[in-house]
Amino acid sequence: MEFKIGLIRGDGIGPEIVGEAKKVLDTVCSKYGHAFTYTELLLGGASIDATGYPLTDETVEEAKTCDAVLMGSIGGDAKTSPWYQLPPSRRPEAGLLAIRKALNLFANLRPAYLYKELRDACPLKDEIIGEDGFNLIIVRELTGGLYFGARETKEVDGVMTAVDTLTYNENEIRRIAKRAFDIAMKRNRKVTSVDKANVLDSSRLWRKIAAEVAEEYPEVTLEHMLVDNCAMQLVRDPKQFDVVLTENMFGDILSDEASMVAGSIGMLSSASLNETKFGLYEPSHGSAPDIAGKNIANPIATILSAAMMLRYSLDMDREADAVEAAVQQVLSEGYRTADIWSEGMTKVSTSEMGSLIAERV
Ligand code: IPM
Ligand code: MG
């Protein structure tokens, strides 16, 4: 089958890890007889360098012509990069938020599971991990809440004051809640809706709508959990979770925590979806400027994001299974990038890891 894929190589380690994911997709194409055409899209720091802006209309329009977009990571070192001398709305991260909004990518799926091969990389004790490890998915609302509310910094009565606003309407909550319940129906049929309903109005509405949506899914168990408790439960007993449904900022924070529990942030893939088949696929981690260009970053999160792209946007379950199995096989053969390396394992570079996975597809 023929598909058009947008490639956002991005900043920092982005170009390296996207290169490895493309290597894997090239193998998928030749093995399964598909033809992907690629179009390069600018976003973040790379876009600022080329155009002065972190996102241009050209990138948005071109992305809309694609079946899916695969992205590395964007951003630089806030202390040293000239990008951070620009006003906040012109910095790399603003471009990422803007493209999510422009493409209406409201549903961010971030699966976190512990490969049995990576038990040594998991900071939790054996008795907490248990026999089978854990397997959860965070469903994060991605185009609302605090990251998209009005914000301002100004002097009030001679005192510098900053305000950010957190708004959700019931429609925004309902559509992401439905997505979480649909996913739960294909998994273990449990949704944990995470909020701060003991303090925030937006969370009280969140809880009410989540409960309403649950009535349409009698086979799924809904539990509500306060976000501070959830942060604790993720390290106390991650096995209790199946689908974690939450708003934008809580999901941002909890997904970083979940990735570390799963061994390394270098393992966590993500899909950002709208109401259609289109999606933007990116690792959950950042651009790690400190290790950029050294060929040591872990490309697995990006490769697993490419597998999610095959599954969700291109309807290629068989091919996605093959990529995920190849990752599993490389890990069970003992190959590790530096972030997940432990005694007795074979340490490999970014490009070696990509090739090893591609060869096993
Ligand atoms: C993420 C990142 C972004 C976010 C930043 C870079 C704006 O942390 O994808 O989790 O907060 O969504
Ligand atoms: Mg984040």
Walk me through the structure.
The protein is of the alpha/beta class and 361 residues long. The protein has two domains: 1-122 and 263-361, Isopropylmalate Dehydrogenase, CATH 3.40.718.10; 125-261, Isopropylmalate Dehydrogenase (3-Layer(aba) Sandwich), CATH 3.40.718.10. Helices cover 40% and strands 20% of the residues. It contains twelve helices and 14 strands. The strands form three sheets. The chain has a ten-stranded mixed β-sheet, sandwiched between helices. Strand 1, helix 1 (14-32) and strand 2 (35-40) form a beta-alpha-beta unit. Helix 6 packs across helix 7, helix 10 (300-312) packs antiparallel against helix 11 and helix 11 (317-332) crosses helix 12. It is globular, with a radius of gyration of 20 Å. It starts with a strand and ends with a helix. Magnesium ion binds at residues 252, 256.
- Per the CATH scheme, the topology name of the largest domain is Isopropylmalate Dehydrogenase
How many H/I helices?
12
N-to-C span:
18 Å
Computed over alpha carbons, the radius of gyration is 20 Å
Number of domains: 2
Assigned CATH architecture of the largest domain = 3-Layer(aba) Sandwich
Strand order of the largest sheet: 2-1-3-12-11-4-5-10-8-9
- Uncertain residue ranges: none
CATH superfamily of the largest domain: Isopropylmalate Dehydrogenase
In this structure, how is the largest beta sheet organized? 10 strands, mixed
Binned strand content: 15-25%
Shape: globular
